[in-house]
TrEMBL record:
Pfam families: BON (PF04972), CBS (PF00571). Residues 79-138, 166-222 form the CBS domain. Keywords: CBS domain. It comes from Microvirga mediterraneensis. SMART domains: CBS. InterPro entries: BON_dom, CBS_dom, CBS_dom_sf, Diverse_CBS-Domain. The lineage of its organism: Bacteria, Pseudomonadati, Pseudomonadota, Alphaproteobacteria, Hyphomicrobiales. This is CBS domain-containing protein.
């Protein structure tokens, strides 16, 4: 269920902000006087580092955060098992045809016993003499000639077999790796896909598109018993506490699945992150945004 939220234009008084910082009531009595707190108390209040706690809010080991209940997907859950592969002797023209017809961006190169020996990707076929995309010779390359580099470049642009154009050093994955590690590896190495090995043998391939398909299949878990307001409040406050050091200036209440979030944040991005955290809290149906940006001195 997607939560709806609206931004309130109701102003937050200094007394209300200080009360939230100190963990006092969310609003003063409408008919009572507003007492100004001593400066030392107000100063300590804005530096208060603990979240406001409610009766029964202490979390024990039997009450883990809801995110911990989310199953951790592994490579085996999302990888493509029917992999198009080639041998080291496969002609480059056939490899190009397979990439185009299968609409894939790379093919692993395997030996006769199924061991991975390399990979040929679209980038390996970009510089080819057949289509006139080989690197043009320049005067400085002639002056600083590296015969080995020149020979290797010639093989990659003119070679006719997979072994001539493949990348022999391949970053690989295993079936038991979690998707978080795969995403980190792809991002760090700037890769679009990873061959999956069992020992030295190829058993599949995992790509960015596999991660996107996993996201498309994701459905939020259904609860036999809807979370109580107290459970939702604890969950959301834990999320906010992990998000921002300004959590002590954030006051949250939940009533029948409707969250009211008020307080002071440093940036609009911080406010948006808190709203996203609320939207991802199971059970929250609507959100009232009463957060304001902290005023900064320009002097």
């Amino acid at each position: 269920m997607t939560a709806n939220y609206r931004r309130s234009t109701e102003p937050l008084s200094p007394h209300l902000l200080l009360s939230m910082a100190l963990g006092q009531s969310s609003a003063p009595d409408a008919d009572g006087p507003i007492a100004l707190l001593p400066w030392r108390v107000r100063r300590d209040g804005f530096g208060y580092s603990r979240l406001r706690r409610y009766p029964g809010q202490d979390r024990g080991p039997q009450d883990p955060p809801m995110d911990e209940a989310t199953p951790r997907l592994t490579v085996a859950d999302v990888m493509t098992r029917d992999v198009v592969s080639v041998s080291a002797a496969t002609p480059v023209s056939e490899i190009a045809g397979a990439l185009a017809s299968k609409r894939i961006s790379a093919v692993p190169v395997v030996s006769t016993d199924g061991a991975l020996v390399g990979i040929v990707s679209e980038s390996d076929l970009m510089r080819r003499t057949e289509i006139g995309t080989q690197r043009r010779p320049s005067w400085w390359r002639k002056v600083l000639a590296d015969m080995e580099a020149e020979a290797a470049d010639y093989i990659r642009t003119h070679g006719r077999k997979a072994r001539h154009v493949m990348t022999p050093r391949v970053v690989t994955a295993t079936e038991d790796m979690v998707l978080a590690d795969i995403a980190d590896l792809m991002e760090k190495q700037r890769l679009k896909r990873l061959p999956v090995l069992r020992g030295s043998h190829l058993v599949g391939i995992v790509s960015r598109s596999d991660l996107v398909r996993a996201l498309a299949r994701y459905r939020a878990p259904l609860f036999a018993d809807p979370p109580t307001d107290g459970t939702m409040l604890r969950d959301l406050m834990d999320r906010v506490k992990a998000l921002t050091p300004s959590h002590c200036l954030i006051n949250i209440s939940v009533h029948r699945g409707n969250a009211d979030i008020a307080g002071v944040v440093d940036t609009a991005t911080e406010r948006e992150a808190i709203l996203v955290a609320a939207e991802n809290t199971p059970g929250i149906r609507s959100i009232q945004d009463r957060m304001i940006l902290r005023c900064r001195s320009t002097s």
